[in-house]
Amino acid sequence: MDVAVIGAAGAIGRQICVQLIERRVVPVSSRLQLVAREGSASASAVHGLRADLIDAYAEHAPLIDVALHPHDVVADVIVMAAGRTPPSRPGVPVDRHALAADNRALFHSYAHAIARHGSGHEVVIVVSNPVELAVSVFAEALGRHRVVGMGAWLDTLRFRHEIAGSLGVRRQGVGGFIVGQHGDGLVPLWSSVRFTGLTVDERVEAVARLRGERTLDAFPAEVADAKLALMELAQTDMQAAFALIDTWPPDLRALARPWLTHQSGAKTASGTAGATVDLVDTVFDGREIVVAGQVSLAGEITLAGREVYSVTGVPIILGPEGWTRVVLDPLAPDEERRLVSVIGDITASLHPGEAA
Ligand SMILES: NC(=O)c1ccc[n+]([C@@H]2O[C@H](COP(=O)([O-])OP(=O)(O)OC[C@H]3O[C@@H](n4cnc5c(N)ncnc54)[C@H](O)[C@@H]3O)[C@@H](O)[C@H]2O)c1
């Protein structure tokens, strides 16, 4: 099985390539294609990246080659990690609409080239932001089931990690999903949280303790307040800003910590790459496994009495041919209200200029 990484010379793309090789997800007998844009600085850098990867991993590196044009992208799994990224400086707000306008043409160019010149069964894992827009563009060109955004899986892993941290257990012992939009529109599903080795009563008690009296109705306001507090503190004392996050509940931490990491200038390359490589590994594994991902829905779920036709993050079954099914259990009332509202926002952002 071959993998192509579009935007391989970028901060995230480079880390994805490293982890694909280091975790032996792309075996020696397969090919890793590094894709950059002809005429840009990354077109030179990608040749250097190829040499560096071979230098570091000579014993178990796959065949590594370079492509500089969308119509040369060839692989079984294609990771889309190219595009403009939000500014990573404290206090600079993220304008996802401007990001969308910039990256839309880029998504179209690769989606159409792969549709035209590809094998017809590539699976695309989307990393680029806005994830929902990229999923929408690729799904339209290639077919819905072959395209998965990795944002919901990354958010889900972070949620599990933060819960595990609060309880002093390993992340592997915690289940549960984050759905909705990657970024401020993420929807933590407390109703889906499970713990290895706990009875139902113990689980209910643990969730109540972690979550307190809060519901998702107040979550957007909590996020806005959290960002304001962090933005102010991060200007003068980044360490104190990270320490402040530690005092918050797990769902808020799952959103705030990576947000501040990006603002700090460090970016979230390692964690993002880790979650991306998990999904590539799942596609290669051959079994169908439950993960979370942004997918283009066409009535697979019903919320507030209406079938959903939009892109959103949901738990899905992922396998060698892409995603096959959505596995969303009935939601708590506040979760359903929040997800409906977030899907409304996503739909509006995918079709700017159209009346609601
Ligand atoms: N989903 C997530 O959780 C998540 C997390 C972090 C970053 N991201 C997104 O990933 C993307 C990349 O982020 P980054 O930090 O690596 O940015 P970066 O600026 O370091 O790298 C972007 C790369 O894309 C390349 N590129 C731009 N146009 C291209 C084209 N037409 N063809 C091929 N390559 C092209 C650039 O040359 C550059 O190498 C951004 O959209 C960012 O928002 C997503």
Percent of residues in β-strands:
15-25%
Radius of gyration: 20 Å
Low-confidence stretches: none
Report, as a whole number of angstroms, the end-to-end distance.
43 Å
Ligand list: nicotinamide-adenine-dinucleotide
Number of domains: 2
Provide the helix percentage.
40-55%
Please trace the helix and strand order, writing H or E for each element.
Answer: EHEHEEHEHEHEEHHHHHEEEEEH
Q: Quick one: overall form? A: globular
Could you say which structural class the secondary elements and strand pairing correspond to? alpha/beta
User: What is the top-level CATH class of the largest domain?
Assistant: Alpha Beta
**Total helical elements:** 11
Second CATH tier, the architecture of the largest domain: Alpha-Beta Complex
Key terms:
binds nicotinamide-adenine-dinucleotide, L-lactate dehydrogenase (NAD+) activity, L-lactate/malate_DH, alpha/beta, six-stranded parallel beta sheet, Rossmann fold, 356 residues, three-stranded antiparallel beta sheet, oxidoreductase, L-2-Hydroxyisocaproate Dehydrogenase, Chain A, domain 2, 2 domains, 47% helix
Could you please describe the fold and organization of this structure?
The protein has eleven helices and 13 strands. Helix content is 47%, strand content 19%. 41% of the residues are buried. It folds into two domains: 148 residues, Rossmann fold, CATH 3.40.50.720; 206 residues, Lactate dehydrogenase/glycoside hydrolase, family 4, C-terminal (L-2-Hydroxyisocaproate Dehydrogenase, Chain A, domain 2). Strands 3-2-1-4-5-6 form a six-stranded parallel sheet, with helices on both faces. The model has no long low-confidence stretch (mean pLDDT 95). The protein binds nicotinamide-adenine-dinucleotide.
